[in-house]
Design a protein that fits this description.
The protein is an alpha/beta fold. It is about 40% helix and about 15% strand. It has a six-stranded antiparallel β-sheet with strand order 4-3-6-1-2-5. A six-stranded parallel β-sheet has the order 10-9-8-7-11-12, with helices on both faces. Helix 11 links the parallel strand 11 and strand 12.
Length: about 375
């Protein structure tokens, strides 16, 4: 494949922006109206996700033959939307039509062949991964809401139970669909380690303008059924034999996957009396949003665990005040630690910057990113779940 030609032509389409995205979906739905029901009613986030994924693929197209993990995961995840092999040619035809529409004279027969070849490789990898996963995992897991604790107007703690074993590892995330928002999936992280009774905790904070978090936080009731996509992510998980010191920095309900790892380490400590040293900073804007304060204070009795709450917008708070990333970065010299960071996109970006500023090796900082990013004129590789 002529990667330079693919990347240059993609860059020109990205510069067009929203009209190119709208054209692609209009072409797809007019050519194949039967696929419209596979997509959510509101297409804004979905449009961004498609072009963000395509931008990542094209930016890294030279590594496709050897690094297939991203595409394989993408193929497996598309099963929950009902995507089958027959749908890929339809999407490919609409992509080619979009490129032809906005590249104009630059859309030569040779460039078309390059794009068709690249798309064929992408489709083959995704379809093969999806087909292979059918024998071992369902397209999604049904889970029942078994407990609801509304901590505040914005934060709700849920207990859910899957009807079949759900093979996640503490620190992973999964996409969730709620009944009131069909075909609209958003990522959440279990806040508990694996349990024998198939239950897990979810920490849900309402995202302004969100389409799924308000329903999960305010509307679900015990007995309601939600859908879970396959577990994804590896950057906030720990190898069973990990023994190095850990710095955990959480913002809001970004605490959830880190809490799950802490619970897993506590289980390990209970059976082997061994666990790495862990310092966990939990940052919130206002004191009442320290919603898991009691559990974390209780855990502070463990010799290996230290909990430091941080509040940024409450001058009466008697503990650490400020932005959690700054407080964590400046409290200690973290050389030799592995940092795990989770929270909003802005919180993660700020915390990583602060830790690097104070001397922590960027390679020692781990965080996930499942947020769709709109295309930009100069697309860069996105951090994506493996």
């Amino acid at each position: 494949m002529k990667t330079a030609a693919l990347q240059a032509s993609w860059g020109k389409v990205v510069e067009v922006g929203e009209p190119a995205i709208q054209y692609f979906y209009s072409h797809l739905f007019l050519s194949h109206p039967e696929v419209r029901d596979m997509f959510p009613v509101s297409m804004t986030a979905q449009r961004d996700r498609f072009f963000a994924a395509l931008g990542h693929i094209i930016t890294n197209v030279e590594s496709l033959p050897t690094d297939r993990a991203y595409l394989e995961q993408l193929g497996r995840e598309h099963r929950r939307f009902g995507v089958v092999a027959a749908h890929y040619p339809a999407a490919g035809a609409s992509l080619m039509a979009t490129l032809a529409r906005f590249l104009g004279p630059a859309w030569t027969p040779e460039l078309r062949r390059e794009w068709e070849s690249a798309y064929g490789v992408v489709a083959d990898i995704m379809v093969s991964a999806a087909e292979a996963s059918k024998s071992s995992t369902p397209a999604w897991w049904d889970a029942e809401i078994t407990g609801v604790k509304r901590h505040s107007l914005d934060i709700t703690l849920l207990e859910i139970r899957t009807f079949e074993p759900y093979p996640y590892v503490a620190g992973q995330s999964m996409a969730i669909e709620v009944p009131n928002r069909p075909r609209t999936w958003r990522y959440f992280s279990p806040a508990s380690a694996q349990r024998d009774d198939h239950t897990m905790e979810l920490h849900v904070e309402i995202v302004p303008g969100g389409q799924v978090s308000p329903d999960l936080a305010r509307n679900v009731r015990p007995g309601d059924i939600i859908k879970l996509g396959a577990p994804v992510g590896h950057k906030l998980t720990l190898d069973p034999d990990h023994s190095g010191n850990l710095l955990m920095v959480a913002g809001g309900t970004g605490l959830a996957p880190l809490r799950a790892v802490v619970e897993e380490l506590d289980n390990r400590w209970g059976t082997s009396s061994a666990a790495p040293n862990v310092l966990l900073f939990h940052g919130v804007r206002y004191t009442p949003n320290l919603y898991d304060h009691a559990y974390l204070k209780h855990m502070s009795s463990r010799p290996w665990f230290t909990y430091i709450p941080v509040v940024s917008h409450d001058p009466t708070f008697p503990g650490q005040r400020g932005l959690v990333g700054t407080v964590a970065a400046e409290m200690y010299w973290w050389e030799g630690y592995t940092a795990m960071v989770c929270g909003s996109e802005g919180m993660v970006r700020h915390t990583v910057s602060e830790l690097v500023r104070t001397g922590l090796d960027p390679k020692a900082i781990r965080h996930e990113d499942f947020t769709p990013h709109a295309p930009t004129a100069s697309p860069k590789p996105a951090e994506v779940p493996a």
